[in-house]
Amino acid sequence: SADPKVLRYLGTAVNEGDEISKKCLEDTGIKIEYITATTDDVTKRVITQPNSFDVLDTEYFSLKKLVPSGNIFALDAKKIKEFDNITPVFTKGQLPNGKKIGDQGTAPWKVLYLEGPNSKTFSKTPTEFVTLIPTVYNADTLGIRPDLIKRPISSWTELLNSEFKGKASILNIPSIGIMDAAMVVEATGQHTYTDKGNMTKAEIDLTMKIMTEAKKAGQFRAFWKDFNESVNLMASGETVIQSMWSPAVTKVRSMGIPCIFQPLKEGYRSWASGFCVSKAVSGPKLDWAYEFVNWYLSGWAGAYLNRQGYYSAVLSTAKANMTADEWGYWMEGKAAVSDIKAPDGTVLEKAGAKRDGGSYDDRMGAVACWNAVMDENDYMVRKWNEFIAA
Amino acid sequence: MTTTAALELVQLTKKYGGVTAVDAINLKIPAGSYCCLLGPSGCGKTSTLRMVAGHESVTSGDILVGPKNVTDLPPADRSTAMMFQSYALFPHLSVIDNVGFALKMKGVAKTARHAEARKLLDLVDMQAYAARLPGQLSGGQQQRVALARALITSPQILLLDEPLSALDPFLRLRMRAELKKLQRELGMTFIHVTHGQDEAMALADIVVLMNGGRIEQQGSPREIFNHPRTEFTARFIGGHNVIAVGAETFAVRVDRLALKTPSETVTGPSTAGTISEVEYQGTYVRVVIAIDGGSEISAQITETQFDTASYAVGERVLATWDPAQASLLNTTGSAIVRSPEKAA
Amino acid sequence: MTTTAALELVQLTKKYGGVTAVDAINLKIPAGSYCCLLGPSGCGKTSTLRMVAGHESVTSGDILVGPKNVTDLPPADRSTAMMFQSYALFPHLSVIDNVGFALKMKGVAKTARHAEARKLLDLVDMQAYAARLPGQLSGGQQQRVALARALITSPQILLLDEPLSALDPFLRLRMRAELKKLQRELGMTFIHVTHGQDEAMALADIVVLMNGGRIEQQGSPREIFNHPRTEFTARFIGGHNVIAVGAETFAVRVDRLALKTPSETVTGPSTAGTISEVEYQGTYVRVVIAIDGGSEISAQITETQFDTASYAVGERVLATWDPAQASLLNTTGSAIVRSPEKAA
Amino acid sequence: MGGKRPRSFYFLAAFFTAYVLFLYGPMFAIYILSFQGPDGGLTFPMNGVSLVWFGKVFSGSGIVDIGASFKRSLQLGLVVMLLTVVLSVSAGLAFRRSFRGASFLFYVAIASLIMPSIITSLGIALEFRLLDDFIIKSGATSWTTAMGLFTSGLGAHLTWTLPFGLLIMFAIFNRFDGRLEEAARDLGATPWQTFRHVVLPIILPSVVGIGLFGFTLSWDELARSSQTIGSVNTLPLDLQGLTTTVTKPDIYALGTLTSAVSFLVIFVALVVILVLQARQRRHGSDAGKGMV
Amino acid sequence: MASPSSPSLRLAPSMKQHRKTFVAWLQAAPMMLVFALFFLLPLLFVTVVSAWDYNEYEMIPAFSLRGYSDTFEGCIAELPSLCTILKTYLNTLKLCLLTWALTLLIGFTVAYFLAFHVRSKTWQIVLTLLCTIPFWTSNVIRMIAWIPLLGRNGLVNRGLEGVGLIRQPLEWLLFSEFSVVLALVHLFTFFMVVPIFNSMIRIDKRLIEASYDAGATGWQTLLNVIIPLAKPGIVIGSIFVITIVMGDFVTIGVMGGQQIASAGKIIEARLNALQFPAAAANAVILLGVTILIISALTRVVDIRKEL
Ligand SMILES: Nc1ncnc2c1ncn2[C@@H]1O[C@H](COP(=O)(O)OP(=O)(O)OP(=O)(O)O)[C@@H](O)[C@H]1O
Ligand SMILES: Nc1ncnc2c1ncn2[C@@H]1O[C@H](COP(=O)(O)OP(=O)(O)OP(=O)(O)O)[C@@H](O)[C@H]1O
Ligand SMILES: [Mg+2]
Ligand SMILES: [Mg+2]
């Protein structure tokens, strides 16, 4: 037999899974070596050690930082079998049913294409040079503890409601945290942003001022930085309302603690991630990388992700790998017919349950903005530091 | 004024693991007296002193200072002060601060304690070194600083562990006089470990002779010198020849031994031998005679006598003495030197 | 066989910062001789020894061992060995390993070096303590181990810094004899720092008397004792009274001084005074006389004489001597004691 | 008799116990929570009691191979330990004499301590990237990277452990009796023999302490490793990576196991030592066990 | 016999000095090499980068002091109120001082106990190991465990409520300056214990005996003998704690609920935003400030004097 086909896969643990790598090895003969790191470390490693990984699992908004470093390989769209079947959310900014969705922030289609194979400039129109092949995405909102709040929550304004003083939290990644803050500011009607993902200095100042006041008043119990912290804060009752990720809510719930991923009338903040390939990859390794990406989009992995509460990039192939009941619960907002199980077999929801926020179209259709890196990023980070120091 | 106190040791014993360093000693030292502890190396002098000071735990027995049983008290509550055989000067403090340390602990102001410390430094002839650190002193200088430091405390009982061993004889004589004067003036109880019988003789009211962890003999210097009770005492105190005549053993002072040529007639006891060594000693000459039985005795004769007779090594002589001036020794009892446990 | 070497010091000087500890001394010690270094505390004996051994850097001057200038050589290349005043025993090694250390460094096998070490422990009477750690020994025992450790190396020149100071006189005499015997047998050059003139007298071929960093006088013991050249020597060597008669100063041995009552007639020089102290010394009695001029002299008289005359403190006496037995002193030259820099 | 303890002993012993309890504070939560039921989380309340999480640790399931990274960390830690001890002792000896650049080295060590680890980490990563580029430019086309556990990773860890080692050496050599070395040299020991037979045995317990310290620092090191470790992670990095997803009490079980094994090893060692000492009791002594 | 004092035989003293120095230099060289390769060179890059320009997305290799000037933004304009950087440094210093004082107090006491009251070496080692074991469980895990311990429903609050001492859970136990200092003390006390312990075991027990003998009380002995003699250890421990706390961001981040500013945290935020020049500039500033503190400390006690 030939040399084992090994790919070094750098990413956060969010999208990594034993089952995925096992299945991949089985199907393609490619052995995936996970290099797990925190979100921040992943980005830094791309800049500092482009030679230490082959495939990168990252988010679209990071591309604004990563592409200028020259360490990202421009993938050839033609070599991606399912490229044309990728959901139009990425390619066109609309739902499969044609409905336009929010494009504030670093929406994927803004950074999906490059002007040339070695270009560092994003192309506004589709080209064959693709930066990042989407795999997973979702719409984030606030998580709440209904048992401790005991009343319906329907707006982002509740995050700064003094009723939850000392029991609220947001994400301490400046570029994301400020967008949650912006959702609140907009919801309270204090300001309407042209683009929450690309604020002016004045808008940054305003947003941070409102947040600073809340912080000084003791609104926040803590800020969280990683998935696990958010689960712990919520599960232990340290916080009752906070920005959250969908699987984190699922996790809290699986511990027997009531927790809701609350759909809000102002909509969701969305994010999307996928695969880049390191510029240092060449030769047969590059072929494996294409092979791996193609495998990933071929359905099994998509279904796997869907079952965790994420969305997969190629819906058709994923659907083929899921039962109708699963598809109905996760994607169509239908009540579960039988128990809904996680990929590892543990029961997530009993029969009859419905997904928070409803169907794919309801949720993705209500996306208000995308995680972003602003043009005024440098200024924003300084202001964020000020906010922390306040 | 300093107060003073009597010291009493009752069946005091110290064992280090399996080694008995001090073996059930009993000792009473009246308040205000000068006691010299004498004995061969390793006989338990330092151990005794350290127990009295409270630096070494007592294996069994009691220590009484005045009427108080201090056996289990910490050092600070014992009204004793000690000068260490190894000096134990504070390396981070200057000479004057070392000496003034005890006063500082009492809260005496800096100028006052420096003045007092200077007085003591003067006493030990170390004024000029006040600002030095101990590491910058010679051995003898360190010893003097340690002495000054012990003297400043004016405790009820002062324990001195070989305080003068590193000094030249010149200085030693002076320090000796100073010690005696101080003791007389202050009336403190002094316990002074020394190796010199001359020192003990000159200073002590009571001489305690230790051997192998026991007390061999105690008494006034003259008593001990003139009436050694055991062979060990006779030998250790020096200036004595131990001569066996028949079943009895006598101690004869070396300066009481007269040398005759074998041809001369002798009245009284005598013993014959060969001169094995002649040592010039300044004011006198020491003549060592190998007695025919095998042991050695020595005679101390004046230079004049020596020059007249001009004894040479190898010459045969007859040693004689006046029986009235010899002590009959107790030959049972203590062994000369006790061995510690055999090395494993 | 051990080899031996002569030692020569040329203008050897040691300064510690501003303090001159050794002041341009010149000294030649022939190979195979026994040299005793004598002098008051702090006069520079240890410093000199440490420079010879190579543990202290030389400020200026040279040290020659045999024909070789070793001034800048490391200690190991000097063929010297030293016994430290502070012992410097290795705390983690047992007594026997301490003594055998030098052999271990040479790669001698364990049994061989232990056998050799045991021989030396025997010599210093420490056989029984072979397995102990230094921390478990008394002061004198430590000193003996240090001595044994220095002796095992059989160097060309052996440097001993007060090797016997912590020993009782009994043991000291024995060690002294052993040292002398060893030196004779091995033919090594010994340099031995001591405070006892008796020790120096008994052991030395050459006595070097130091004072304030300089050599005051050197020569054979008898020479020095009978012909002190300076007041310092006379006083230091002991057994002498320094008596000024008009412009001249004489040294008179204490045992050459005769005491008369003021009423007796005297021939020869004499000086009057009051008895200020009477010290019983075992074989003799020391009588201290405060001379009318202010200084003190002492006379050593036999016990018999003392008992006949029964001198008492406060009594007036006349001290006389035979002018033929007195030495005229060189009054210029060295000061008695040099002060170090004034304390800052 | 012999061991009469002063009152301060009891106070200090109580203080020490309190300190140890404080040190173990979070560990108690870990020990308890590692017995969570299968549905339990990382926080209270307990969701049943079970041993499943211990099983998880042994079965090695999960995204990352904890066993492998455990082994890597152990290997790296041991190498770091060894180098820290050797380099620190050697430099400590150097500092006892003065040499040109002593002050410089001292302040470099301090600076290395101060520099936020992430910055050092980044700097090393940059350096190796330049090195890689250079190697590739000079013709080694198939070259991937010089970075790795025992190159950049080791270096990064050493910049962290060496300042500690060096400074602790200062404490160890403080007032070390130089006469012992003089005596050894005098007895014909070469400088190496002097070190080997006199200095080292005396400072050995402290040197072992430095080794332990170095190992612990390396074992727990995170920030410096993050950018320098290349493509395989150390244990803390993997554990931290795990916190970006659903974390389960198996990491607590890992902590409990680590502690349990350590306790066991130390306990066994202690028993062995005590037995050996009891055998040697015959030479024993209670030297220096004064009242103070 | 060779002419005894012929100067040609003499080695110049400086040459002899040289040889000794050379050996010392060789002994220090390996460590120097490691630092040169893995610290100085990277530090050089960092310093160079700190003087580069940057925009929102990337660094630009052109000289600019923007990294520095941005850091001090508003420091003059906002007077008399403090700008972010000063406020942050002040806060960091406060945390640092608190932690230092507590670790010193606890560390000294623990070291004292181990050095003077634990009599056998074996037990000293065993107790030291006992203190080391918690550190063998990764700090990542231990940090998480603070929540179940100190949280609103944590062991401590539950316990206090159970005993009846409090009705409402104590909020300040977690995500507060209290918890930050607590965790820092928890982590770094041992860094004090080790050097202080090592300098304490070098103290000759007879000196303490001599002190008691001179009538000193336990406290007086502590102040006048033990502390002066253990000073190098104290300073070394202080260097450890101060330097680490000054640069810390992980502990302050996690235990402060990411809400407490520190010098290290600013750097981290900049770095995570991939603004390397700004981060580097901040690191250089931090380095400068801390080196100043440390050199002031070593001026008070020269830890290299009595080696
Ligand atoms: N490290 C030092 N720094 C400054 N002065 C010193 C130092 N070592 C010794 N001295 C001084 O040098 C002089 C000579 O010291 P040395 O140790 O040679 O004397 P010594 O003759 O051996 O005395 P002793 O008989 O008391 O041991 C002394 O006055 C001493 O104070
Ligand atoms: N720590 C110890 N462990 C075991 N044995 C000891 C210890 N300290 C002293 N010894 C032994 O106890 C005996 C008495 O020791 P001590 O120090 O009291 O003697 P010393 O009379 O002061 O002798 P020296 O005149 O030599 O100083 C010695 O034989 C010694 O070896
Ligand atoms: Mg003694
Ligand atoms: Mg000396």
TrEMBL record, chains B, C:
Keywords: ATP-binding, Nucleotide-binding, Transport
PROSITE patterns: ABC_TRANSPORTER_1 (PS00211), ABC_TRANSPORTER_2 (PS50893)
Record bears the keyword Repeat: no
Membrane spanning stretches: none
Domain ABC transporter residues, every copy: 7-237
Keyword Cytoplasm set for record: no
Annotated GO MF terms: ATP binding
Pfam families the record matches: ABC_tran, TOBE_2
Leader peptide range in chain numbering: none
PANTHER family: SPERMIDINE/PUTRESCINE IMPORT ATP-BINDING PROTEIN POTA (PTHR42781), SPERMIDINE_PUTRESCINE IMPORT ATP-BINDING PROTEIN POTA (PTHR42781:SF4)
Membership in a protein family: Belongs to the ABC transporter superfamily.
Name the record gives this protein: ABC transporter ATP-binding protein
Provenance organism: Bradyrhizobium jicamae
UniProtKB/TrEMBL annotation, chain D:
Pfam family, one: BPD_transp_1
Location of the ABC transmembrane type-1 domain: 70-276
Membrane topology of this protein: Multi-pass membrane protein
Regions that span the bilayer: 9-33, 74-95, 104-126, 146-173, 194-215, 251-276
Keywords, alphabetical: Cell membrane, Membrane, Transmembrane, Transmembrane helix, Transport
PROSITE patterns: ABC_TM1
Compartments reported by the entry: Cell membrane
CDD domains associated with the record: TM_PBP2
Presence of keyword Cell membrane: yes
Main location: membrane
InterPro entries: Bact_Polyamine_Transport, MetI-like, MetI-like_sf
Family: Belongs to the binding-protein-dependent transport system permease family. CysTW subfamily.
Record-given protein name: ABC transporter permease subunit
Organism: Bradyrhizobium jicamae
UniProtKB/TrEMBL annotation, chain E:
Keyword Endoplasmic reticulum carried by entry: no
Domain of life of the source: Bacteria
Keyword line: Cell membrane, Membrane, Transmembrane, Transmembrane helix, Transport
Domain called ABC transmembrane type-1: residue spans: 89-297
Keyword Nucleus: no
Membrane topology, record value: Multi-pass membrane protein
Record PROSITE patterns: ABC_TM1
Transmembrane segments: 97-118, 125-147, 178-197, 276-297
Gene3D superfamilies with a match to the protein in the record: MetI-like
Cellular compartments annotated: Cell membrane
Pfam family, one: BPD_transp_1
Similarity comment text for this entry: Belongs to the binding-protein-dependent transport system permease family. CysTW subfamily.
Matching PANTHER family: INNER MEMBRANE ABC TRANSPORTER PERMEASE PROTEIN YDCU-RELATED, INNER MEMBRANE ABC TRANSPORTER PERMEASE PROTEIN YDCU-RELATED-RELATED
Protein name: ABC transporter permease
